[in-house]
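Internal ticket - ligand job 430, zinc ion:
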Amino acid sequence: MNGFSHFFLVLLFLSLACQWWLARRHIAHVCVHRHRVPRVFAQRIPLEAHQKAADYTVSRTRFESVSAGYHSLLLLAWTLGGGLETLDRAWQSLALPPLIHGVAVFLSVLFLTAVLELPLRIYRIFVIEQRFGFNRTGPGLFVADLLREALIGLLLATPLLALVLWLLAPQGDMNLRPWWWFYVWLVWIGFSLLMLWLYPALIAPLFNRFTPLDDQTLLDRIQRLLQRSGFTSRGVFVMDGSRRSRHGNAYFTGLGRHKRIVFYDTLLHLLTPAETEAVLAHELGHFRLRHIQKRLAGSASLSLLGLLVLDALLRQEWFFTGLGVSQPAPHLGLLLFLLVAPVFGFFLNPLLLRWSRRHEYEADRYAAQQASATALASALVKLYEDNAATLTPDPWYSAFHDSHPPALQRIARLLQEQPLQAMDAHGAAP
Ligand SMILES: [Zn+2]
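stdout (C-alpha cells):
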C-alpha cells in the first residue's frame, strides 16, 4: 500500500457511494410517481403499464447497485487483493516466452472475469427479465450464446493482444518501444473500424437470422424516405430479436456504401409503418448529422489521452506496487490500467452522456423534418410502454446513466418540432 493505493481506494469508494446514492434517489423518485401517469402520457399509457414500468425500474436499479458492489469487490481482489499477481506467478511457472506469457495472463483475466460475472448475467436474464415477461432465451440458447461469444472473443482478442503487447514492449520487459502509444493508437483505430465493418457482415449473423423485409408498403415508405434524405442502403433486413427478448430496436449500420438497415421483428410488430419510418429517420439523422463520425473521433481522442496517461504510469513503480503488483511488467501495466480506468472514468460519464443526449435531440429534429414528429412521438410512447421504461427518472440518476433524454423532455421537444415539419411540407428549404 502506498499513496496511490489510498487515492485509488478513496476514488473507488466515492464512485460506489455515488452510484448507490443515485440509485436510491432514482428508486425513491420512481416510487413517488408510481400512482399516476404523467399528464402528457395520460391518454396513451394505462396506469397498469406505468406501474409495471416503475416496478421493473426499481428491480433493475437494485440489481445495478448490487452489481456495482460486486464489481468493486472483484476489482479489489484483482488489484490490492493480489489476484493479478497470483495469476501471473502461476503462468510464470510454465516459463513461456514473454509475449505469449503476456497474452496468456490477459486472456485468463478476461476468462475469469466472464465466469465471475456469469451469476449476475443469469440472474438478470432468468430472474428479472423473466419476471417482467421480457425474456425469451432458454437455457440451451443461453449456453450456445456463451460459447459463441467466448470463441469469437478468443479469435479477435488473441491477435489484437499479441500485436499490442509487441508494439508496447518488443521483448516483453519494461524496455518500452519509443512512440509505442502512437502505434497502439493506430492499431486501436484500425480495429474499431474493422469491427464496424465486420460486426454487421460476419458477427451479428452468427447470433441472429436476418431476412429481407418483405412488407411492400413499408418498403415503399422506406425507399421514399431514403431518396428524400439522400441515402443509399444495401438492403432492409428484419432481425429475429424475439428469439432472445421482447425488447425492440432498430439500427442503421455499416461503412460507406455498405450500409444496411436492420429492424428487430419485435419493433415491426409494435409500430405502424408511419412510426417505423419516423424511427428510421431518427437513425438516418445520426448519420446525416455525422454523429457516428463525431463519436468515433471522440473515442479516438479519449483513447489517445488514455494511452498517453498509461505511458506515463508505466514508468512509475508506484503505479504497479500501489495496485498490488510487485514486479512491473508491460502486460500487467496494461491490465491494471484497463481494470482501474472505469473508476476514474465514472466521473466523466455525465459529460459524455450529455453529449450523447444532445445528439439524440438533433436526430429527433432531423426525423421531424424528414418524416413526422408526431409519428416519432407516438412510436416513442409505444416503445417506452413496451420496454417498461420509466417515464419519471430521477434527474440526477438520469444525468449519470442515460444516453437518451428523459421521456417527458424528449416528447415535449418533438411536439414543438411539428410546426417545422408543416413548413417543410409546404416546400420550404430542407
Ligand atoms: Zn438515437
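Auto-summary: The longest strand covers residues 260-264. Residues 3-139+293-350 form one domain.
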